[in-house]
């Protein structure tokens, strides 16, 4: 039940404005092996965490490279999944390592979506003549969307599907970014992390119940908050990505250690996009 909120502003005209403000939660089994976010050893242009689950090693849920390519993934909540489907984490890594632009990549993926369990994929180029951010949901329209400037929310349904938890978190996110130009960068990051750790349950929610059916009903209360907390499963990583008007990237990851919700590590990476 990952969740992402973001503001996309490709042409910020005011001082201290951001081209991208993004806050994301990775919800996963606590014991699933993964690497903390870092630049890849074999390719120090790419920054992401990495899935280390057997058979799916090297996939990721969110990443960026120094050339301005960004991608993020959420699963689509469905009652049953195909255990033999292709791993979805490769959808992000393949884009980050490619030369193809974001829309063309999603166009290609849209023809292959049936090979995967349901997913949502954001892909963006922040180092072209004009920033471009695109979205494709394998359970939605056949064609990818080129996103207009604005504030968006994405969880495990289609973009901006009005789940109550998504609406609640999007409002909290929007309240923070309205003052983003007037507060220090570090303070903005901390305020966004607070939003992503909001555990207020948003019930009842017939929309999420109808989509998840028998799978989600027994655990609906735990899944109904921005920050998910179940037995052995839940929010284990918060990621904040800021790209300012000059191309300065601040990537902050707060991640759980040792499958223990009392142990967390925060890592911060800053770099300028290559021109």
Automatic annotation (TrEMBL):
Organism superkingdom: Eukaryota
Coiled coil start-end: none
Gene Ontology annotations for the cellular component aspect, listed alphabetically: Golgi apparatus
A Pfam family hit: TANGO2
GO terms under biological process: Golgi organization; protein secretion
Family annotation (InterPro entries): TANGO2 (IPR008551)
PANTHER family linked to this entry: SER/THR-RICH PROTEIN T10 IN DGCR REGION, TRANSPORT AND GOLGI ORGANIZATION PROTEIN 2 HOMOLOG
Name used for this protein in its record: MGC68627 protein
Upper classification of the organism: Eukaryota, Metazoa, Chordata, Craniata, Vertebrata
